[in-house]
Write a structure and sequence with these properties.
mainly alpha
């Protein structure tokens, strides 16, 4: 082909031009394909001159084809020009002609080219020319036609076709790589504005391309103009993009600016978030890609500031208590962040944003700042403490968990002696769950502590604003903080008396918080933590849990105040007293003080509060035998039970009008029943004085009262016949009770009653026996009657009771069975019962009943 003479070239070119001027679409398309094939086959070095000669003769006709009405012709013309440009050396003349044509087709305000595919070819051709000139190390005549290039690029960036947009971004990246900043800068703002529209594109690849283009374009932007600040505002939201590759590209953009931006030192505060957020990204792919690039940034910064950082490196000792799962950044990376601490205020401000993802993103960024700033950030703690505290109580679990990580890290890396005073000041001024949570995470993570701080903290927590809180989350973290205090108490230097004071404070706070938590909620998480704290105190004191309550509980009970008011059952003092009774029960050392406070409740508080406290007392009474212990370790003598029953229980056993009085009477009976069941021997000292109340209680209209009363009846022992007789007949009448359970218990109770026969003469004692035998016979008659009942429970109870009576009164049993035989219609069943229970085995006489 190189041997072709000028005439042949002229003739062939003329033929090709005539074909391109034809109106026949098929002919032009065929000619373009033929010429494209010929150009593509011209690959040897000697063909360049020939191709240049042909292109000089054909380019006007080819560029005219860009305006052809047939898409296939435009397509062929663009591809043929691409082939020529690919093989020809870059020439300013060719560039100007092609660019002018592309601008006519792509750079107008209206869209002249209807085909998306052709528009893609146009922008691809522009990209080709940029690449060709980049190989030369300069942009040549591009300097003179940036306005044309920018028009084409802006139109392509705003194209509706995503592939065209992405190709335009790629072209812009290539252009920025070779352009002179001074020449491109006048066009950067309008290009950036066009790219901002792509940042919200629904396709992730389009967003990635836009960020990449903005990254390169930013290197040429005017740092003193508003456009730079807008750039960061537009790109930053993409750090929360759902696609990891988009977030990675934002991080890459930040690295590029940290490395190559001329005025980067002025914009470190705005650039760093783009990179640091990627270091805490959820995607391992993003983190692994950005981390080595971040190390390179730190290395460059170290080299640029070696004189300063080398001195700092000498004293750069390992940090105690550094997180095990965190790799410590290099000194260059840390230096980058430490000079940008002013940004912390902006970051923490975003932790209160109304959007969940913004708050989470801000906390992750703050975490990275703490990792890199370390102790240098201590001076900023007072400013960020409120916002971090607020984030620790965020309603979104993921956000609060991230805030907890930040607080934990601050406790480890910040200077303890400096931040602890600010921490205490925050707790004193703001008795809120948020501040306490943040302080808890920091204090627990810190490796330093002293006895004075532990006592100061325990005393602060004892204040009613903390220990009397009714918020479950607040209570849980108070208990966790108490556990931390106990842990740190093992490491401090203090005397035995000082530790006693500390443990007393911890006990009082813990037991009060547990008490309120017990009264408020059924969730046991806080109670479990509190129980662990109390058990640890007992272990440290080398005493049992009961002995610990005996020694320390009276001081806690002293904090129960303001009961002398018309309080409802949900009032804080009532809830506190209720919880203390349920958790610690009744013990000798504080029983009298507890009685006084209960009496105040019964005198002043509302009916619901009285019922709540009495209900707890009845439950605590079940543990009387194991909790009310004398100093020598023997079971409590009646001296403690008597005042308790006399002052608390007995006044409410008598009948009074009103629904609340009925409930109180029922609870008083329940408490007496619990005492009898728990301490059956000790209760004998108080029951004789209460026997006068029992008949009316056994006939009470409230079934619960009757139930507890009949359960208590068997514990009335050692009474004379005269004292026991009213109780015995009242109990026997309960065998007719509407409640089946009470009927069964009544049958069992009657069989267990046994009086004491005392008198001054034999006649008097004999009279008592006759009176009691009369009761026994009437009871046997009734029980024999109930034995015929179809109810299995009552039948079984009657059988057990009759067995006991038959053993103690065999003659009466035979007599009553004989009497029942004479009247009964079911003689066989009665005979079986008699033979089963009788001891003397006297045969029953069958008598016929007269008609």
């Amino acid at each position: 082909m190189s041997l072709m003479n000028c005439d042949e070239i002229e003739q062939n070119a003329k033929t090709d031009c005539e074909e391109l001027e034809s109106t026949d679409r098929a002919q032009k398309t065929k000619a373009l394909k033929r010429m494209l094939s010929w150009v593509e086959n011209c690959n040897d070095d000697n063909s360049t001159e020939l191709l240049a000669k042909y292109f000089d003769r054909l380019y006007l006709h080819l560029l005219k084809c860009y305006h052809d009405r047939f898409e296939s012709v435009r397509d062929g013309a663009v591809r043929l020009v691409d082939a020529y440009l690919e093989r020809l050396p870059p020439m300013d003349f060719n560039l100007l002609n092609v660019l002018s044509t592309l601008t006519e087709r792509m750079g107008q305000s209206e869209t002249l080219e209807p085909s998306e595919e052709i528009r893609y070819l146009y922008i691809g051709q522009l990209h080709l020319m940029v690449r060709k000139y980049a190989k030369m190390g300069n942009v040549g005549v591009f300097r003179e036609c940036y306005n044309l290039v920018v028009k084409v690029l802006i139109k392509a960036i705003r194209d509706e076709y995503p592939v065209v947009q992405r190709e335009a971004c790629t072209t812009l990246v290539a252009l920025c790589s070779v352009a002179e900043t001074a020449e491109l800068r006048p066009y950067t703002e309008q290009l950036a504005v066009a790219l901002y529209g792509m940042l919200n594109h629904k396709h992730a690849p389009a967003r990635i391309s836009a960020v990449a283009a903005l990254g390169r374009l930013s290197l040429h932007m005017d740092a003193s103009a508003e456009s730079m600040r807008r750039l960061f505002g537009e790109v930053s939201p993409l750090l929360m993009d759902p696609m990891p590759l988009v977030r990675r590209e934002v991080g890459t953009m930040g690295v590029l600016m940290l490395m190559d931006l001329l005025d980067r030192y002025s914009f470190f505060e705005r650039i760093l978030p783009l990179v640091l957020c990627c270091l805490k990204d959820d995607s391992p792919e993003v983190r692994s890609y950005i981390e080595p690039l971040w190390v390179k940034c730190g290395k460059q910064y170290y080299e640029e500031n070696e004189a300063e950082l080398s001195q700092q490196e000498i004293s750069d000792l390992p940090v105690d208590n550094y997180p095990k799962d965190v790799k410590r950044p290099t000194i260059g990376c840390r230096g980058l962040v430490q000079r940008s601490l002013r940004l912390l205020i902006l970051i923490t401000r975003e932790t209160t944003d109304w959007k969940d993802n913004v708050r989470l993103h801000a906390l992750k960024l703050l975490y990275q700042f703490v990792v890199h700033a370390e102790a240098a950030m201590t001076a900023k703690f007072y400013e960020i403490y409120p916002d971090v505290s607020h984030a620790c109580c965020d309603s979104v679990a993921e956000v609060s968990a991230e805030a907890a990580k930040v607080a934990d890290l601050m406790g480890r890396l910040l200077c303890y002696e400096a931040w602890i005073e600010h921490g205490f000041d925050g707790l004193q001024r703001n008795a809120r769950e948020s501040y306490l949570r943040c302080f808890y995470y920091m204090f627990t993570a810190s490796s330093s502590a002293c006895y004075e701080h532990l006592v100061r903290l325990s005393t602060l927590l004892r204040d009613t604003e903390y220990s009397h809180t009714l918020k479950p989350g607040f209570q849980l973290h108070i208990l966790k903080l108490l556990d931390t205090i106990l842990n740190k108490s093992l490491e401090v230097t203090a005397t035995h008396e000082e530790l006693q004071e500390l443990y007393l404070n911890v006990y009082i706070v813990g037991i009060k918080v547990m008490a309120l938590g017990y009264s408020l909620t059924s969730d046991n998480s806080g109670l479990n933590v509190g129980q662990m704290v109390i058990e640890r105190i007992a272990q440290l004191q080398n005493v049992t849990l009961g002995q610990l309550h005996e020694h320390f509980f009276p001081m806690a009970l002293g904090d129960v105040q303001n009961l002398d008011a018309a309080l409802e059952d949900n009032a804080e003092p009532v809830l506190l007293l209720d919880g203390l009774i349920n958790i610690c029960h009744l013990r000798r050392s504080y029983l009298q003080s507890l009685i006084e406070r209960v009496k105040i409740v019964f005198e002043h508080c509302s009916a619901s509060a009285q019922i709540r406290i009495f209900s707890s007392l009845s439950m605590a009474a079940l543990h009387w035998s194991s909790t009310v212990i004398s100093a020598d370790g023997k079971p409590d003598m009646p001296s403690m039970m008597k005042p308790f029953v006399t002052e608390i229980v007995e006044p409410y056993l008598t009948w009074k009008a009103g629904a609340s009085s009925e409930s109180m009477r029922s609870l008083a009976m329940a408490t007496l029943c619990a005492l009898a069941q728990s301490a059956p021997e000790d209760v004998l000292q108080v029951l004789p004085s209460l026997v006068k109340h029992m008949p009316s209680l056994l006939e009470d209209r409230n079934s619960n009262t009757r139930n507890y009363a009949i359960k208590t009846v068997p514990y009335f022992r050692g009474l004379t016949v005269e004292e026991l007789k009213p109780l015995a007949y009242a109990a026997m009448q309960r065998m007719d009770d509407p409640s089946a359970g009470i009927r069964s218990m009544a049958a069992l109770a009657v069989g267990k009653l046994s009086p004491t026969f005392k008198g001054e003469s034999e006649e008097e004692i004999q009279h008592q026996h006759e009176v009691w035998d009369t009761f026994i016979k009437r009871a046997m008659d009734l029980m024999i009657l109930y034995h015929e009942s179809p109810e299995k429970d009552i039948k079984k109870a009657v059988e057990l009771s009759l067995e006991s009576l038959a053993i103690n009164h065999p003659d009466a049993w035979t007599e009553r069975c004989q009497r029942a035989m004479d009247l009964s219609q079911q003689k066989d069943e009665l005979v079986k019962l008699y033979e089963k229970l009788s001891i003397n085995k006297v045969a029953l006489q069958h008598k016929s009943i007269p008609a």
